[in-house]
Amino acid sequence: MKKQNVRTLSLIVCTFTYLLVGAAVFDALESPTEKNRFDVLQAIEGMLIRKYNFTEEDFRVMEMVVLKSEPHKAGQQWKFTGAFYYATTVLTTIGYGHSTPSTIGGKLFTMFYAIVGIPLGLIMFQSIGERVNRLSSVIIKALKRALNCKQTTASEVDLICVVTTLSSLTIAGGAAAFSKFEGWSYFDSVYYCFITLTTIGFGDMVALQKDNALNRKPSYVMFALIFILFGLAIVAACLNLLVLRFVTMNTEDEKRDQQQAEQFVIIYASLVSWPYRSPPLVRKVGGSNPKPLKPEKTIHAPPTHFTRDGLT
């Protein structure tokens, strides 16, 4: 079996194994807390119904009103600032879910907008990532020359270390800013930045969603948008290196397999064609009865030796 096929099967097995392990760990960590929260909410719901004499239907209406009013704390979500924020989450595939279109026209436009915008965004971030890697390579070479290193070229490991460091600094700096503006703990801010820049976008924590921030804090809105776009470019640079390494490994295996196949064809053809006897020739002597010529000597091939480099 070809190496690239073995690698693909191994990746599939490893991915499903990783999913199973992740499910088991999340079950152990989150399931008890989920059950406790549900029990507490059920107890509070029963207490409110008894205290204020709500009917079941009235309580559901109040619950729906509370949930639906949550996005409006950020201000008008569909004015230009909020709409630009929404378009950014669509193009970058973050998809917080903090605001969603409610009209048929808005839903249709979102689908067509995403069809064009998502590939455009991926190409843009990949291109920026390549430029970042190129700049990092130049800086690494200059530093190695300044330090009189024997190897002055920038290896893939060097580039991965650089972009990983930049990604970590971006997340750390963004977390400090969001912790200040949103009032989150630093750990929650790091979690939000990581979920955002990896485009997971759960939506459990979303910036710009309180104190009418979309309308009253334009500088904060600008910072949040720049952080998302710049951070995604840095992360794209790191992912571009990892994907490029995997593609390079597959390409090298394919070239090696092709060379082995060509070598096998050459060996097989040489084995089939040797020894080779020339066909008998005839000629007419005097009359009509042909006389065969003397057969030529059999030609034998020189001995074939198989080495690591091919035939000798």
UniProtKB/TrEMBL annotation:
It is a multi-pass membrane protein. GO terms for cellular component: plasma membrane. The keyword Acetylation does not apply. GO terms for molecular function: outward rectifier potassium channel activity; potassium ion leak channel activity. It comes from the Eukaryota. Residues 287-312 are annotated as: Disordered. It is found in: Membrane. Belongs to the two pore domain potassium channel (TC 1.A.1.8) family. InterPro entries: 2pore_dom_K_chnl, 2pore_dom_K_chnl_TASK, K_chnl_dom. Keywords: Ion channel, Ion transport, Membrane, Potassium, Potassium channel, Potassium transport, Transmembrane, Transmembrane helix, Transport. The chain crosses the membrane at residues 108-128, 190-208, 220-247. GO terms for biological process: stabilization of membrane potential. The keyword Metal-binding does not apply. Residues 75-132, 169-243 form the Potassium channel domain. This is Two pore potassium channel protein sup-9.
